[in-house]
Amino acid sequence: MAADRIAGHIDVPASSDGVAALQYIRKLSVFVAAWLCSYLAIGMVFWFYCLVGGHNFTEALYGTTATYLLSLVASVEFAWFAAK
């Protein structure tokens, strides 16, 4: 029972709709948990580095942007590979 991919949508047989929904919820919850953990960890590292280094406003903006982007990438990777 292979799923056909059509325009980014996965067609799932009707008998496994509940299973597909649970898998989707599981991946979504893993994504949210991974994003929260990675954001907090990366944010604390940047905060400590800025506190010790005494950075200016531009570097603080870069650090904030990097925190969001790196935590997003880490959570996508974790949800993609770990939630199988």
What do these coordinates show?
This protein is mainly α. It has a domain at 36-84. The protein has 2 helices and 2 strands; from the N terminus they run ββαα. A two-stranded antiparallel sheet has the order 1-2. The radius of gyration is 18 Å and the shape is rod-shaped. The protein starts with a strand and ends with a helix. Mean pLDDT is 75; it is low at 1-7.
Question: Keyphrases for this structure?
Answer:
two-stranded antiparallel ribbon, mainly alpha, 2 helices, disordered N terminus, 84 residues
**Portion in beta strands:** under 5%
* Percentage of residues assigned to helices: over 70%
Give me the number of helical elements: 2
Return the structural class.
mainly alpha
Shape: rod-shaped
Low-confidence stretches: 1-7
What do the pLDDT scores average to? 75
With strands numbered from the N-terminus, the spatial order across the biggest sheet is 1-2
* Major sheet summary line: 2 strands, antiparallel
- What are the secondary-structure elements, in order, as H or E? EEHH
What is the end-to-end distance?
Answer: 18 Å
Integer-rounded radius of gyration: 18 Å
Transmembrane segments: 28-49, 61-83
Keywords: Membrane, Transmembrane, Transmembrane helix
